[in-house]
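USER:
Class, as today's exercise, take the chain set out below, and explain how the chain folds.
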Amino acid sequence: MSSDSAAPACVPVADEMCSYAIDMWVTDPAILTDEAALLAVMDEAARAGHAEVLGRSTHRFPNGAVTAVLVLSQSHLCVHTWPEHSLANFDLLTCGRLNGELMITYLEKALETSRVNITRVIREVHA
């Protein structure tokens, strides 16, 4: 799945947050300029990870690149695309029992990735 396969997966618990920085290179960059299709993939990824989508926002740039944000019930999923590099940069924050690993697996398959880099960080909740 990732070039940093040694990184531990975040195992969600009731009061834990996990932050993911995900770089995905896709085989067909057309998806990276298709705002509606990209949002649909992100919506399905959120559902795969047991998240409820509360809101969406997108912006399309002159070169066709897209920035999209899903506000999730306990987190968020954001992307900025670089069609000229066949690259999508995702940021995902999960909290509680949302499963970021399932979301990432869905994104990888749906976007037909050729390469993926994932950085995972467990975020402290307690003071």
User: Anything to note?
Assistant: The CA atoms of residues 42 and 83 lie 17 Å apart. Helices lie at 35-48, 100-110. The longest helix spans residues 35-48. The chain has a mean pLDDT of 89.
